[in-house]
């Protein structure tokens, strides 16, 4: 009997995998066709000493550009800033997103639509528009934050938020959290809908507190949704560009890896060095994906009831 049951589960898993490939296959092929060439071109260009203003001086140097990038303190400084922004934003967004997901999940049926719409409004705003709005709000000449919050210790009308690293990173992170927390809450809301209600009721009947129900019942049953939310947001946050470029352009040690690649390729027209930075950034993203999957150790077959 167990052997027959395992065979049925195996047939079901193969059938679901086949259906998944049929549904996702066309999109996967299109994305591969669109992204594979730029990736291979970047890898190819990174092997050359190549400046756009001197195309005839193109010279093959192998991994020389990678040696230049990795031996430069600027790379490691920008990597540290990028990791800091990624970790802080993802942690804050995960906590706030979970709270918003609980609000949307527990809302009275008639109010669910308006509440969800209101929460998701920031995510519908274009990132560039959002970045400019936050920049002008905190700008020392055109902003209103200093006047509105001058009662807070350390804030006055002469405070220049973009004159030092700490306050600049605060505004950048705050704008990221405001913009993308709704995305996290939407993913976590999908995970909350998969938590069996009878398990929660059984835990409460057994005398479990709200915190115990959350820690022992709700979170373990939405582990897959949490992994997807963390993975998607970590990859997106690690490639942050718009907010930093608009608010500081990398001044006061706020430059991130995406901006470094832009500065080398577009600003200095060093295609070889810029491509090397881009390839290293891509490898960091792959490493983050691998680490997230290994960290959460989600058994997807159990989420399908197998």
Description:
The protein is mainly α. The chain has one domain: MetI-like (MetI-like fold). It has helices spanning 2-45, 64-70, 73-106, 109-120, 127-138, 145-148, 165-192, 197-205, 210-221, 223-238, 242-247, 257-267, 271-296, 300-303, and strands spanning 48-51, 54-60. The protein has a two-stranded antiparallel sheet. The chain starts with a helix and ends with a helix. The relative contact order is 0.13. The model is unreliable at 301-306 (pLDDT under 50).
CATH A-level architecture: Orthogonal Bundle
Overall 3D shape: globular
**Beta-strand percent range:** under 5%
What's the CATH H-level superfamily name?
A: MetI-like
Q: What spatial order of strands do you see in the largest sheet?
A: 1-2
Secondary-structure element order, N to C = HEEHHHHHHHHHHHHH
Class inferred from helices and paired strands: mainly alpha
Radius of gyration: 24 Å
Helicity range: over 70%
- In whole angstroms, the N-to-C terminal distance is 16 Å
CATH topology: MetI-like fold
**Total number of domains:** 1
CATH class: Mainly Alpha
Number of strands: 2
Largest sheet properties: 2 strands, antiparallel
Give average pLDDT, whole number. 84
